[in-house]
Amino acid sequence: xxxxxxxxxxxxxxxxxxxxxxxxxxxxxxxxxxxxxxxxxxxxxxxxxxxxxxxxxxxxxxxxxxxxxxxxxxxxxxxxxxxxxxxxxxxxxxxxxxxxxxxxxxxxxxxxxxxxxxxxxxxxxxxxxxxxxxxxxxxxxxxxxxxxxxxxxxxxxxxxxxxxxxxxxxxxxxxxxxxxxxxxxxxxxxxxxxxxxxxxxxxxxxxxxxxxxxxxxxxxxxxxxxxxxxxxxxxxxxxxxxxxxxxxxxxxxxxxxxxxxxxxxxxxxxxxxxxxxxxxxxxxxx
Length: 286
Ligand SMILES: [Zn+2]
Known about the structure:
Elements (H helix, E strand, L loop, with lengths): L1 H33 L11 H12 L13 H13 L10 H9 L12 H12 L13 H13 L10 H12 L16 E10 L3 H4 L17 E3 L10 E4 L3 E7 L8 E5 L3 H7 L2 E7 L3
Parallel strand pairs: 1-5, 2-4
Antiparallel strand pairs: 1-6, 2-5, 3-4, 3-6
The protein binds zinc ion.
């Protein structure tokens, strides 16, 4: 019968295909594990996340390791290539992988300067630890920002950026903190409140007569600190403020009663820019 003949032929072909398929998958996985895949803008997946994590750990900050090779990852790759004498094309091939594997970030401390300091300043600024202008010079403001980051993230507060702090910075990148608000609303929350939000900063004008003192629960005044009425939002609660981002209810104020909140910025100008807004405040789960 024709059918029998077909079956006899199909089975070995099928087995051969299966074998080739298994071989192919096996090689594909070996490539991913060995990290020899060529990656470039637009790629996505675990191997991109691994690359991002490695970039973050080496001080080439590219934001959350979300597995999407976007503009930030490109920027980090370009910087790595430029500083390590690779072909500067934004494509991660064997040469760039080799550079990343052998790169040894130096310890950063007050007095040093260079592109690595600039990258540190940029990433600290983005996370609300104000270094001032990104000038690549590790001055007093950068020192203060490093200290603040170290204190808040359980590192030894010595003002030196070594392996421990680099790890903490990379860990911070991995967590998906809704950064600048706008669009990136939290998907899990306990309740939402409509509130009137003003802004302040650590300056004398904003804090008279309590200038120089930390927040009501002892945290340094910086971006991410919000003053609330403790009868409405319990102090210590994590919240998400529309247009501002994730924050902690850590402070109080004379005028902050009822559905009023006061969001802290690092600079007075940012506080002025905020003005007064009506915002949705999401109470996040513990
Ligand atoms: Zn101020």
